[in-house]
Amino acid sequence: MDKKIMELPVVKKIAEARDLAWVNPKLKPFADVSLEVAMADIEDAEKRLARFAPFIVKCFPETADRGGLIESALTPVPKMQAYVNRVYGSALPGRLLLKQDSHLAIAGSVKARGGIYEVLKHTEDLALEAGLITMEDDYSVLASDECRTFFSQYTIQVGSTGNLGLSIGIASAAVGYKVIVHMSADARQWKKDMLRSHGVKVVEYESDYSEAVKNGRRQSDADPKSYFIDDENSKNLFMGYAVAAKRLRTQLTELDVTVDGDHPLFVYIPCGVGGAPGGVTFGLKELWGDNVHCFFAEPVQAPCMLLGMATGLHNDISVQDVGLTGLTHADGLAVGRPSGFVGKVMEPLLSGEFTLEDKRLYEYMRNLLETEDIFLEPSACAAFEGPVRLLQYEETKAYIKEKGLWDKMDDAVHIAWATGGRLVPEDIREEYKNTYLDQ
Ligand SMILES: *Cc1c(COP(=O)(O)O)cnc(C)c1O
């Protein structure tokens, strides 16, 4: 890496692999932001998901009570908030809520938004082209044997650290596609086993996520009937995630939560390659502009989005370039190089980032289980680093003062975005519950 880059104070600090808070100096007033993506793209995705709802109900009866919408609960977690205030001295005023994408239907993670959306988008493209449906039809016909036979000539491929593979694998197998998931070394064994049980071909790599993606992309490009779902560059995935924001607005209304100049909303989302937290953040900013403050959380050894944004190099820099390992217990966040597409969209939108040590993931996991009886996988628990430490770091305290929010914090709402956990098997949960790390 360029010596000038290595000498930037923020890079030196990241390279030390200690927990930190970073406030984005390029955050802009929302009115001054111009983006290559727009609200119209979110609405298009939302309509597509509505067209597919009858098909989703048919393939996944577990979604019937939400009418084929894949959506999760938003719940107050007051006991967890009281616990962190008491034990970690967080002094977090306002209300702490948990967005339980950990419990989403089908994939048990936030990937049920972007991943499944992109499989459906591709399915619609193929089906319209082949004249199997028109956009006015009831899409449940796509679950017929005749359609399944049609889709079985096509292959879907994806590179994954685990959850994206689960989401794409399960959804694609349901449509009838052949599926190949390219799994990085960090992927947990149970995720590979579960996929194979759905008839998915799992290719294992000893290298990290970026290599798995590169190989998957290459193999897919060599086959004209194969479609590669590209987590590093896909606008479709991103829009699937962004739809979450519009649904969240309805849920906040149901909880009597107002978001405006006097009632700020803080949202904390674990980040891997960036698609999921980036898509959600884009949607939230479109809805609430300057009144929503989005922070990402990443492991100290794999803060790829932070490094890309803080240097402005995006996908031209990796955590290994600054001497970090990229290794973490947060398998869903074990990414060494961020999405360049997402990083550039986030530049004027993201408020900042927190990095955290792996040991905290397991602490927060046990804390939530004990106080609220909700289980999350370790990666998802990174979300709590934000609310726990927002008022402990000088950087984030200065942010709150500079935005004129200090006196409004009693009326603030904080959302920890729980990104995964429901599918974790019982024996693995036990193992996690008993994991205590030194760092
Ligand atoms: C994938 C994932 C994330 C982060 O999403 P990216 O799109 O990779 O940034 C966070 N938490 C969990 C549990 C995940 O599986």
UniProtKB/TrEMBL annotation:
InterPro entries: D_Ser_am_lyase, Ser/Thr_Dehydratase, TrpB-like_PALP, TrpB-like_PALP_sf
Gene name of the encoded protein: dsdA
Domain Tryptophan synthase beta chain-like PALP per the UniProt entry, residue ranges: 91-389
Family per similarity comment: Belongs to the serine/threonine dehydratase family. DsdA subfamily.
The protein's required cofactors: pyridoxal 5'-phosphate
EC number: 4.3.1.18
Keywords on record: Lyase, Pyridoxal phosphate
GO biological process terms on file: D-serine catabolic process; isoleucine biosynthetic process
Name of the protein this chain belongs to: Probable D-serine dehydratase
Coiled coil regions in record: none
Record keyword Aminoacyl-tRNA synthetase present: no
Catalysed transformations (reactions): D-serine = pyruvate + NH4(+)
SUPFAM superfamilies: Tryptophan synthase beta subunit-like PLP-dependent enzymes (SSF53686)
GO molecular function ontology, one term from the record: hydro-lyase activity
Organism expressing this protein natively: [Clostridium] hylemonae DSM 15053
A Pfam family hit: PALP
Database matches in NCBIfam families: D_Ser_am_lyase, PRK02991.1
Keyword Lyase in record: yes
Residue numbers bearing the N6-(pyridoxal phosphate)lysine modification: 111
